[in-house]
Specification:
The complex is a heterodimer. By secondary structure, chain A is mostly helical. Chain A is built from 5 helices and no strands. Classes of the chains: A mainly alpha, B mainly alpha.
Chain lengths: ~120, ~240
């Protein structure tokens, strides 16, 4: 587990360094994820240790969003004043995004599955 | 007796231990409720945990900054967890290769829909400029969204809250909405949830199936990338 955690941190670190060096518009962990994905694809396999540690971390991914979510308390005043705009935008836009993405993908995959006649 | 308790409280409230323990306890209580409800998306564990924590902090008059000194250790794990998403993603590599083209088109459609609809609806309903700019990256995972908000003139800490709320909403709505439109394929469902509702949607997708989770993780990563590249350009174009 310690080995796998070290590996994850090293990839994150590599991601952060690349972001700073190349002035990329992305956070380090996302670059780290891309680097690890590329490594796994090149090596053609995942060690059991890495798989178990990754699954352990991801099983409770929701926990990791709790501290940022609790930050809602410092924005009560703004949210209270603008709640129709905030709530309306969040609910409608999230629903629209779900539908547009799912239907676009389904449409394109359907076209692909059908044999050309 | 009472002064002793006050002393202990003063001491404890100054250490990170309390914030960290509170986060884990609140989450476990929330997760217990979620499991008891049969993993009903309405009993979203993030929403319940946040409600418990905010209620306790408000009752004890503890500032968020004090709480975050402890909670930051949990928050920090978002980094390595994001890197760890490469593992389930790799497991879906064969399927991924098959649908890469359609997935990229759907990603672009979803990403633009998320940005434009959030800002347009917020603007129609009278949102202020700062709020609209904080809303724009709401479908992207927290660390990326906060970075984007800072860049385009939004409030990063408000964005974090809006992102988490979006994730909860997406996780709550996905099942009903996608069923209503007859989307049964777990890869498609996962992908849509990942684009619309980032990590929280992904967390929910993993609880449904590994395929849905992996595609959600893929979509989340790709949407982070797309929005980070697209949004600053769109804002520059508009203003």
């Amino acid at each position: 587990m310690i080995g796998a955690l070290t590996l994850l941190l090293l990839y994150q670190l590599a991601g952060e360094v690349l972001v700073k060096l190349l002035a990329l518009p992305l956070p380090g962990p996302v670059i780290g994820m891309a680097l690890l994905f590329a490594t796994l694809a090149l090596r053609g396999g995942v060690s059991d240790e890495l798989r178990n540690t990754a699954n352990g971390l991801l099983q409770h991914l929701s926990l990791l969003f709790v501290p940022a979510g609790a930050g809602v308390m410092i924005h009560f005043a703004r949210i209270g004043g603008e709640w129709p705009a905030i709530l309306g935008a969040l609910v409608a836009s999230t629903a629209l995004t779900l539908i547009v993405t799912a239907l676009t993908l389904r449409l394109l995959l359907r076209g692909k599955e059908r044999p050309p006649s | 007796m009472t002064p002793r308790i006050t002393e202990i409280w003063v001491y404890l409230s100054a250490t990170p231990l309390l914030g960290l323990t509170l986060t884990l306890l609140a989450y476990q209580a929330a997760y217990w409720l979620y499991a008891r409800s049969g993993m009903n998306p309405l009993a979203n564990p993030v929403a319940i945990a946040v409600a418990i924590i905010v209620a306790l902090l408000t009752l004890t008059g503890t500032p968020y900054a004090t709480y975050f000194e402890g909670a930051q250790f949990v928050h920090f794990l978002l980094g390595p967890a994001t890197v760890a998403l490469a593992v389930p993603l790799y497991a879906q590599l064969p399927r991924l290769k098959q649908m890469l083209g359609p997935a990229l088109v759907a990603l672009l459609a979803g990403s633009v829909t998320a940005i434009v609809s959030a800002m347009a609806i917020g603007w129609t309903l009278g949102g202020s400029r700062e709020t609209l700019l904080s809303l724009a990256p709401k479908s992207v995972t927290t660390p990326i969204a906060m970075g984007i908000a800072e860049k385009i003139g939004g409030l990063p800490s408000l964005t974090a809250v809006l992102v988490v709320t979006t994730g909860i909403l997406g996780a709550v709505m996905a099942r009903g909405l996608l069923n209503a439109f007859g989307c049964r394929d777990h890869a498609i469902r996962g992908f849509a949830v990942g684009v619309a509702a980032h990590g929280i949607g992904t967390a929910r997708a993993f609880q449904v199936s590994e395929t849905a989770g992996a595609f959600a993780a893929l979509a989340m990563g790709l949407n982070g990338l797309t929005t980070a590249l697209l949004l600053p350009l769109m804002i520059r174009f508009w203003s």
